[in-house]
Structure formats: structure tokens, C-alpha cells
Design brief:
Blueprint lengths: L6 H19 L4 H16 L3 H19 L4 H16 L3 H19 L1
Helix pairs in contact: 1-2, 2-3, 2-4, 3-4, 4-5
Amino acid sequence: LYSLGDFADARRQGEQGLGIFREIYGEKHPQTAAMLSRLGAQLVCMGDYAKGRPCLEQALAINKEIRGQDHEETATSLTHLGISLAMEGQWKGAGQAIDEARQINRQYLA
């Protein structure tokens, strides 16, 4: 729906999906983190940083806790958060998040 330009319905369905994932999987589950990340990225792209960034921060916290600091999904969460911060003009935080993601990803490229 988002790709079709139906932003309001895409947002509604994303928020409903997150609620379902939380109910089924619980708060600290990889699927919940993935849904938070998708919803957060979608909200940020729509310009709703106030609601999007907390979703991305929650996804990052879940991934760090359940997958570890050096996991690929943690790096992905850091990248999404970095992009969000850059879109908000928060260059220092964006650079730190992207740099941390780069360091994690480097170990997978070796």
C-alpha cells in the first residue's frame, strides 16, 4: 500500500501488524523487531520522525538484547536508525550509528 501511495492505510495496517506480532510473539522477539523496523522506516519516509524513530530504537534494542551486539540484524537496525537521524539533520548521531553498523558488517565481509 505504501508503494501505491496509500500512506494512511499502509500506516494503519503497519500499526495493526505490530500489535498482532506483539500479541503472538511478545515484545522481545526477532519478528517483533523486524515489524518495528519496517514500521519505523515507513513512518520516517512519511516524515513522521517523532513516531518512526522510537520504533527504530526499539527494534535496535531488541536486536541487541536477543541477537547480540555483533549480529547482522543489529547492524541493519543501526543503519535504519542512522538514516532516520540523517533525515532529521542529526549528523553526529547518524554518523555514529552508521559507523557502528559498518564495523559490524565488516566482520561478515572478511
